[in-house]
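Section 3.1: Structural characterization of target chains.
Under the original work plan, the team committed to producing a structural model for every single-chain target entering the pipeline before any wet-lab resources were allocated. The record below documents one such target. The sequence was received from the expression subgroup and is listed exactly as submitted; it comprises 173 residues.
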Amino acid sequence: MKKLYLSAVAGVLMLGALTGCQSTTPNPDVATTQINQFMDQWHRAAAKADADGYFGVMNENSIFIGTDALENWRKDAFFDWSKKYFERGKAWDFTAIDRNIYFSQDGKIAWFDELLDTPNLGICRGSGVIRMTDNGWKIEHYVLSVTSPNETVDKVTELNKPFEAGIKAKFKN
């Protein structure tokens, strides 16, 4: 009886080992479609002021980097700062007009860049890292940037100089 039990355990362990060795890499075409839908829903959640839909897909230690040089938010701080926008019924409205998605070798981490159309900031650039979890894709890191054509960057940098002096002083210490 003991030999039969040990044989059964060995069989289960062998099956588990073999199953564990099988590839679980997602199909890139399917994953790309999922990520496009996921990111579009995330942006729509902000436009509809759906804080649960927006913050619910960010990992607990997510980082959001905004357009201001001092906006480097952990998820909880970003939520606290943005709560007033979600409470008024509309946070921000970004619509992707182009998106490039790249995958880690195992397909469980993706990074992307996207061009966003916005009513108040014009064309912006977003980029981020997302991870496949047991609960689906989750945002690990997101960066939002305001774009500036090369022809106007001199004017933009001149406008920013007074603000940058204060930022540089803050980080000198």
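The beta strands are 58-65, 72-74, 95-103, 109-118, 122-133, 136-146.
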